[in-house]
Structure formats: structure tokens, C-alpha cells
Batch of 2 targets.
Target 1
Amino acid sequence: MSMQAVIGRTAERLPRRGAALLATLGLGVALLAGGLGATGRAPVATLDRALLDGVLRHTASGETARGVAVVDIDDVSLSAVGQWPWPRYRLAALIERVAAEQPAAIALDILLPEADRASLTTVRDTFRRDFGVELSLDGVPSGLLDNDGYLAEVVARRDVVAGRYFYFDHSGASADVPASAAIAIEGRDDLLDLDVATGVLESAGPIAARTRSAGFVNTQIDPDGVLRRVPLLIAHGGRAHPSLALAALTKALGVASARVESGASGLALVVGPHRVPIDAKGYATLRFAGGPERYPAIPALGVLDGSAPLAGLRGKVVFIGSSAAGLNDLHNTALDARFPGVRIQAAMAENVLRDRHVQVPSWRGSAVLAACLALAAAMVALFVLGSGIALLVGGSVALAAGALAASVGLYLGTGIFVSGAAPAAVVAVLFVAFALARFGLERQRVQAGMRALANARQVTIESMAAVAETRDPETGAHIKRTQHYVRAIASELRRAGHHLDVLTPEYIELLFLSAPLHDVGKVGVPDHILMKPGRLTFDEMEQMKRHAEFGRSIIGSSARHIDGDNFLTIAGEIAATHHEKWDGTGYPHGLAGADIPLSGRIMAVADVYDALISRRCYKEPFPHAVATKMMRDLRGSTFDPLVLDTFFAIEDEIEAIAARYRDAEGDEPHASLELPAAERATRAPPRHSPTRPAPLTATV
């Protein structure tokens, strides 16, 4: 039975045990998927991330950022102005030009941890130390002698938000961070469980000392290497510190603190009039308007040489950073595989200013688990109560699509993202599992039916054979013995590589089942002939020979009512041909050689041997040695040489079968029939006897 047929069967035919199995399986899968989804573990977490990426890509607004701007030290700027790092006075000039446009805030997404070796005082000290040469710096304004000091003065005067980087595995050289660099957190800060940094990397001493506002540039990629969330707060030195984007926003909004609030959907960080959804770790999920091009950047070269229009910077939060490939600040995101870090900061700030966020609620885990359980229950009901493959497949697809659609719809309507991947996965897994389970249950049912059918078939065979046996009671266990002889001979032929196209395992089994009907035609032979103890007359023999055709007719009339190939086909073949002889002198049709069906040739050997060693009303049983000697003499005349040789190849097995199924009265050979030892191998018993038929014709 095909899988499609099994799935499409009506549920009423599913046993109660099967329905309970499906319900248990559904519950187990739902709990597993829901638990993995609630805790963010693979493989469900992988599906969740993939769904979020797809949603972000397909729902990106495509609008150009309005509240932020980027000044980009790009590859063109580096090529024209000089390699990195630039002298600090050049960065100072860049800041001054940007500040002249009166932006709301300036944030420097650049770390300058080492002193500027191009400072005049540094050059003078180097020449003095290495060459003993004293350089005169007379006439140079004091502000230009130290590039770091000059940049520090500009940073302080323009109140630039500087960048820093927090360590989590060791302490940095500048472990002490001024309290002014932290942000005051009000409200439910007790609900926060921020990442705790062990050290910090800041710009060179003079710059750090003059910096009044700073924010970290740390990011955190997901296990698949994609950046989806950024931390807004990190703990260090017992205080909370803001990210570069958050610090720039507080500067632009004129606020000095942020407040943590707990609502129905979880935590939020309130910055001025804006509410930013965060988790307990202080992370916010990025919501991109599009690729990097959605966050316009002005090349630093254009700012320095005055070729770029800067009027658009007024009132915006401006981030100065670099997208140059050599500076390795590019990130893999859902929207672009090479998203510059400075534009990541700009995207986060734009999200806050426009109140466009991705909120992953605190009740997400419970919702996912509930959805998994609900869809699992629906799948169980669908498979138990539904009928027809169209309904089952269509219903499963509808449930999975509904889970995904609900997830996307909730996000589009409220900005809340609860992944429908786990519930959809439950539907997919349960569809396959339920189909396999129903297939297995149906297969068990079919196999049970087949076993019952096989039993009925065997009973039918034995009943038909018993009819013949009641007419010839002296045959005893003849049916059982010949049945096993036939299977043993056929199996050995196959093992030896003969007739492999015919002797398949299935054919051999049918041969075994059919053998008991070889003499069913005897029911058509009169009792006075069938049970005559003496030699048959010619007419009586002719009448006896008709049992082969009677057998074919009886079996054939039954076989016509069964479609396809069946055991009765072989049974009819055996009944009609097991008295044919290899040389063509047998009956009823005088077939010769390979024209005799293989089943008949095998049955002939088994039937004659058992007739010789068994007691009949007209003869005593012959010893095994005598019987086999008689049969050897008939090789190539009565018997197929190959079949007879195979019989002798398993002679021990044949004797064991004869002993196992001996007639109840016993078939002990008569002592007078034993050959003298010297003559056993050279002389066969007489072909004809004045008191009984020839031994081989007695088998009729």
C-alpha cells in the first residue's frame, strides 16, 4: 500500500491505540519544539533567525534616514589624503568643518589608542633620542606642537562623543573610566542583567582626558555570524555605560539619563520622548530601513576640501567613521553582508529617533510553546478526524502558513516579533511523523490481515488435501513429508545457482504451500481402484491416471475466482505434471525434458521417494538405501538428472524430514526387502512382481 493511500484513508479506520499514539507523538514534538524555541536553542533558534531575517528584508521601508548622517573616511578619502591613521590635526579639521554646520551631536566612531607619532614634539624627541639632533620649534604655535592635545581641545570644545571599546576577557590599559562617561539609569534598573566588562580601551591619554561624553562601539554577532542585535548598555566599574549611538542621542536630545520601564511586553529604555525595547542584557534588535545606502554618507575628502555640500548636517546626529575595507569594520547583517560599523550606529540612532523598533517580548517563549501545543492538537485532530489526502495536506499547509502569517502580521501591526518558525516546524515534523506512524499502523493492520489470509489459505489447502487423504488413508504424513522435500530440493537448487529466474524465495514458498494438493484429483478415482491391495488391471490403471487431470480441473476451477498470480496456479501445475517423465513416457500428456514444468519435476522426485519408503495398501515400505538405489537407476529416464542430483546432495536432510514426519503407525521397512550387502549397489529389485504392481507405478 502506498504512503499516499495510507494518508488518505478515513480516520474512522484508525484504531484507538493509533489515535493515542498520534496524540502522544504530537505532544512530545510540541513540547520539544516549544522548549527549544522558548530558550533560543538550535535548531529552532536557527529557524527563528532565518524568519527574522526574511521579515526584516521584506518589510524594510526603503526610506532614507532623516535624523542621522555619516561622514565616511572611505577608501577614496584615504587614497587622496593619505594612509591611516591620519594626523590628529586632520581629524580635528574634519570635526571643525562638521561642527560648523551645527549638527545636533557629533559622534566619533574611531578609536585612537596610540599617541600620534606625527606630532612635532614627538618628532623632536625622536631626533634627540636617536640622532642627538636638536630640532628648533621656535615660532610654532603651542597648540600645534602636540597633535593629540590639539584634537583633544577640539573634541572638548565641540563636545564630541568619543568611541571606546570594552573588554570581557582581560583588563585594558585604561581600566579606570571617569564617572562622567557613564549614564544615569533610573526606574527599574534592578531588572537589568547587563554584560559586565573587565577592561576598556580608550583613545590616547590627552584625548580621553578631555572627552566629556563617550560611548562604546562593541557589537555582538549571533552564532551564525550575522549581526542582528546591539548592546545599548554595558556595566563596568559598578556603573552602566552607553553605546556610541545612545550617548550621541542623549547629547542630541539634551538628556543626561535614561529610565528603565517594565511593561506588558517586557523592558524598555526611555530616552527623552523615545521608548526603546530592550532585553534584560540591555540589547536592542536592529531594524534596518534598507542597505547601507539608506544611511547617506558624505566622503571625508569632500568635507575637508569643501567640495561636498554640508548643509544637510544641520540638526542631525552625525557619526564620523570609516567604511574602508582595510579597517575591517564591516558586518554581516540581514540586509547586507558588508554593512559598515559606522552606519550600524547610525541605523540604531535612526530607529530611536523615529520610534521604529523590533520588539521581542518577554512572553515570547510562552507564546511559542502555546502555539506549538495548539498546532500539534490541530494536527492530531486533522489526522484522526480528517479524510482524504487533499484535506490532510491542505490543512497542514494552512496551519503552517497561518503560524508564519500570524508572526509577520503581528510584526507589521505592532513591531512585536514572535517567531512562527517553531509552530510551523511542529506542523511539518508532525505531518511527516503522523504519515509515517499511520503508515506503520496501517502496515501492521495489513500484515495482520495477510497473516490471517495466509492462515486461511493454508487451512484451505490442508482441507482440500484432507479430502483426498480420506480417500487414501494409508498415506498418513505423506503430505507433510513431500511438502518439506519439495522446499528442501528447491532451496538447494537455488543455492547452487540453478533456475534462479524461477526459484525466487516467493516462488519456493508458494511451491511449499501448493505441494499438498498434488494428489487432490484422487477424489475422482473410485474407491475400489484407489484402495485395491493388488495389481491394477490396464483399465483400472487408465482410470487411476486420470487423477492428474482431475486435480488440474478441481484446482483450476477455484483459481479462476482469484485475480492475478496465486498459489493455486502452481498447485494446478504440480497436480497435472508430477507423473510426467523426463523421457516423455509419463502421463497424462507425455511431456518430456524441460517441457515439464520445474514444479512437476521437483514434485516427481519427492513423491516417488516418499511412496517407496512408505507403507501402502499394496506394498510394504522400502528401506532408504533400496529406495534411493531404485531412483538412481531411473536418472535421465523418469527423473530430471539435475533435480535428482540435487535430491541426493541433501540426502541427510531428506532422511531427517522423513524421520520427523513419520506416519503414526510407523513406516519401518520390512526385513525381507533389504538387499544383501554385496548386492545393494549393483542390483535393483524386480521391476514387476506377480503379487503387486511395479514399485514406481504404485505411486499413482
Target 2
Amino acid sequence: MSLLVVGLSHRSAPVSVLERAALHADAQIKLLQDTVAAEPATEAAVLATCNRIELYADVDKFHAGVAELSTLLAQHSGVGLEELTPYLYVHYEDRAVHHLFSVACGLDSMVVGEGQVLGQIKDSLAKAQDLHSAGRLLNDLFQQALRVGKRAHSETGIDRAGQSLVTFGLEQLSFGTPVDDWARGKKALVIGAGSMSSLAAATLARAGVAEIVVANRTSDRAERLAQILTESGDTDVPARAVPMESVPAELTRADLAVSCTGATGLVLTADAVAAAVGGRVPEGAVAGRTAVGDGVREELPPTSVGTDEGCPLDLSVAQSGFSVMGEAAVAGMDAATLEQHAAWVTGGAVDRREAARRSPEADAELITALAATAAAIGRIPERRRPEPAVEAVRPEPVLFLLDLAMPRDIDAAAHRLAGVRLVDIESLAEASADAPMAADVDQVRRIVSDEVAAFGAAQRAAHITPTVVALRTMAADVVANEIARLEGRLPELDDKHRSEITQTVKRVVDKLLHAPTVRVKQLAAEPGGAGYADALRTLFDLDQETVASVSRAGDSTEKNAGPA
């Protein structure tokens, strides 16, 4: 087994890089085709989700495989290799198996324990099978990953730790209020009709929203999703489909919008969102404020000079924005007055008697330094007490936006708009970093470790199977040749005796081969057991081409198999 995976995910790369590296459906197909056409790889599969892009391959050379897969990822993602390389991770053989099994169980997900990734793994396998890029190794790997993921969810409480990305996003939008209570009665707009958007629509329907509007570039899919929601016996939420051109108008009516499309550009710009909330927030709530966290802050006016009560400097003679002429504003002031100003700034006091002891030369030196500073920076270097920032109350959100697309569907600048709350993949990644881990996660990790060991043993045993088959084929040929020779020497043998002799010879050969072939499979399944196949071929002088033909026949069967 020479399994190699090269990829990047939310754990290794910032969202900005993941967005740019995202692969649309056609790019994934081309990447698979180019990978299997490359020299080091014989099989390939792509796992592309909203927070990961991974290329799996069966390679015959590790270093050449890493270089080729990294280059292909860069070429098809459009991100330069030098820029992409620092964010790539590489797993090989057992570590690659461990990685995919962990992904299937939800251990590597942005929301630990979520089960949606199982559907994505199944889709990846189906795509590789359709393109005939998945052979025995990747078929076995991905199908076993699906079984391991299902086992983890059925035998442990990992579901209690995890949830879908949709549910987690809605929880972030609701500020800790139970999603069902928060969503009840809201008008929802769902943009997209794929698996993630369908899950979002179903989740919102169960939460009791007042209405769901589905918008999609393909009207048939939008209408189909709306029909499913309407006819569902679980809820009585009305749903209707609209074309994408109606999204701006529908956004003005919506309280909540969830977007997850495969678009390469923005679906909702900040201007479109601003227009949608323009009539629903207090006048002037957007302009003149700077976003700070979840609130807004009034922008402070420019600092002026000589306006504070008690300031010992009278700079009213200086014009606003004076520069080199600033020397005139301080000419004739003694050092004691200047130092009194410094004391006023710091809230301290200056003993004028002590200051008066200074010589005129010291005064002149201080004034000259101050004038030089004014000439350099264009103003008197005044240290004013900063005015306290006036905190303005940010209007309550009237439009909640959940962007689950990669690359993003909604302009990130929309979060700065008053009356808007936006949660996207980037903010979900930050929030999930602090999410508590469930106690069942350790149990899932043990399941993954056990399954990785079992899979490795099965693969090593399978590696020797073609050799064992070739050995038994050779033995059968020997038996057939010897029976033919016997018939030539004893032509008078009747059919009964001929059959008895044939069966006896076959039983002898089978018994002689049984123990060594069973034992060699057991030994080959152990770590480091790959050499037993070579030893068997050497001991029995087996034809390498015969062994290879058995392997190719098995690979052909596996490539036509469907996902579990």
C-alpha cells in the first residue's frame, strides 16, 4: 500500500487561502484526470468540502508523489505553489488512513462530531468511480471510511458533541438563545439548493420559521426543494421558489438568509445588503460610525490646540495647520511656561521657582527644539488629554446572514452595516476553536485506531493474495498435466477410476498448500509483512506477469464497484 494524501483545511490554512483554493465541480474532474495521468499515481480521489481540499492517490514513489500532487493542487486551485505550500499537509500510508477515518468520524471537522462529512466522502468516492480513477485501494479505503464513520456515530455519543455546520452557524447568529426560540416566526431566505442549503432549509423548517423562500440558478432544483419542504409531514412551514434575480427584493422582506452556492464570485454584495436593510434601521445608524466588535463607536473630531480650560499656552494666534511659522507662536515664552504646559498635560505641578533658576540660554535651547519639532511635523507637539470615546448603541439586527459557502457568497463588509449580523466560515472557525470536546471523542479515537490497524492488516493480506492465487493456479496446472500424462500411459482407465485418481491428487496438493498459504497470509498481515509475497514468488518460481494479471483483474472489479 502506497497511499498518499496532500491537502489543506481549516486547521492548516486561513479562510482567505481556502476561498481562493476552492475547486468547483469541473476543476475537481480535471484534477482527477490529470492525477491518474501523472507518472507516480495509479488511483486518485478528491475530497472537497467548504473547509478542506484533499487529494488522495496511490503512488509508487513518495517524494515524487508529494511533489506531483502538490503541483497539481496548485495548478487547479489557481493559488501559486510557493504560496500554497506552507499550508499543505501530507499523510502517507497508515497515517493517511488514520486521517481519512478521523475525517469520516467528524474528529477533524470544524464542528467536532458533525455527520455531514459522511455524505461528502460518499460523493467523492462516487465521482472517482464515475471517472474510473478509483481502484482497489481507494475503493477499499473510502468504503471502509464510511463504515467507520457510521460505527462511530452509532456506538458512541459523538453526536452529542457535534452538530451540523448549519446548526452551529444558527447558534452563533442567535447569541446563545435556543435556535428554535430565536428562529420561530422569522421569514427565511435560502440561497442555493444543494446539500448544505437543503439541510439549512430543513433545519429552519423544524425550528418553526414563518416562511422559507428558496432561490437557485436552476429553477427546477429550487422548486423541487420548496415542494419537499411544503409536502413534508414533519412541519407545516410554507415554502416557495424564486429565481436568483428576485433575491434583492426577497432580501428586503427576510429576517434571515442562508447562502451556500457554488458561485465563484459574490452572491450578495455589501451594497445589496445595505439596500435591503435601508428602511429597517434608524436613520443615520450606518453613517458616521466605526465598527468595533459587536458595537459601533463615534468617530472623534480632529484634535485642536489651545482650547482646553486651564491650558497655559495661548496658541490662538497660530492658524490651523501652521507649519514652519509655528516658531512665532512660541517666540518669547520662557522655559518655565513651556514646562508648566507639560505639567498640565501630565496632571502634575511645576515649581516655578525651580524653573526660574534656568538661564536664558536654556530657555532659548528649549524653544529652538520646540520650533524645530513644529517645523518637522507641521504643528505644536501638544499632548492633549484624550476625549473619552462616545459609545453608540448598535441597532438590534434586523437581518441575520449565514454564509456557508467556500469561497464566500456574502461580502464580508456586510458585517459592518448597522442592523446586520453576519456569520461566515471564518467566524465559525474562530468560534469552533473554543467549542468544548465531548467525553465520547476519546472513545471515537480508539475506534479509529483499531480500524486503522485492521485496515492495514487487511491491505497487507490482500497484497499477498494475487501471489497465493498464482501459486494455486500453478499447482492446478501441474495436476492437470500429470493427469494428462497418466491417461496417455494408461488409456484403458475407465471414467470412474480416472475421476478418483484426479480427485486424490488434487486433495494431496490442496492439503500440502493449505497450511503454508494460510500462514503466509497471517504473516503478511502483520507490520513489515510485505516481503512474504516476494519470498513466495521466489521459492515457487512464480511468473511475475501471472501475479500481475491477477492484481489487474481485481482492480478492474473494484473500479466498477459502487459506494457502500
